[in-house]
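Final report, closing paragraph on structural work. Over the funding period we assembled a curated collection of sequence-structure pairs, and we close with a single example.
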Amino acid sequence: MLKLRHKNKYQENFPVGMMMFQKKLRNIVGNYYQFARYADDIADNPNISSEQKINKLRELEDIFTQSKEYHGQKLKFVKELKQKFDEFKLSNNLATDLLIAFRQDSLGFEYKTWDQLVNYCKYSAAPVGKFMLAIHQENQATYLPATSLCVALQIVNHVQDLKYDYMLLKRLYLPKDIMKKYHITPEDILKDKSGLNIKKAVEHLMGLTKGLIKEGSLLPPIIKSTSLRIEVCIILSLTNIMVKKLLKKDILAKEIKLSKLDWLIAILSGIFKGLTIKKKTLP
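Its predicted structure, as stored:
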């Protein structure tokens, strides 16, 4: 039986800041992750209403954007994050844009097209990539390919968790037009094995995702930070590995995960590419 997951940064396929070599950045990354995870847990909570979820998310945003006094300890990390954002001179949108996606999750938003799903991912995932680039003081020209990579990564996770999200969270990230094209019903997603229609839909989605990964591959050469460039190369490698796994295996039959060997291959490949890639200088 499937159970509601509570992921921490070590359980994610691609944890944020997994190679944080700079000690001065660890606190802000930790606070940012806590902010994102706390908001995600609100949206995923099956025991409160959509209205309550929206109110709790609004409270987070108000504390962050309006510098409201909060005297409790529970959300102290939000005020600390805001203080660090001010210290690093970061845009509030790098945090609050995440809340736009969590509001959609809270309201049970359904995605009619691929473009709608991509737009959702631009809020649910891309701010994280932009945040990492911003704290490393990278050129904002890196944001565009970073957005493509983050969207690709998020869609891979959604396809991987398609059954889990629908069964436990009543949330469906498969666009309606793709479901219609391959004659997929919600009941098909709850089956023990994928039919040909599900497999064709996964192939369709991964084909589109490969295009995003190709755009994201433009990112490493324009990153100044060596450690961040290596991390992005590792993430690109892991994403490509997961795409191959999703195309080869049955997403409904068994949870698809990265193996230790996958991680080893991705890390070695990422380090090599990150250190040897021909860098490009941005204006």
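The two ends are 54 Å apart (CA to CA). Residues 38 and 75 are 9 Å apart (CA to CA). We thank the funder for supporting this effort.
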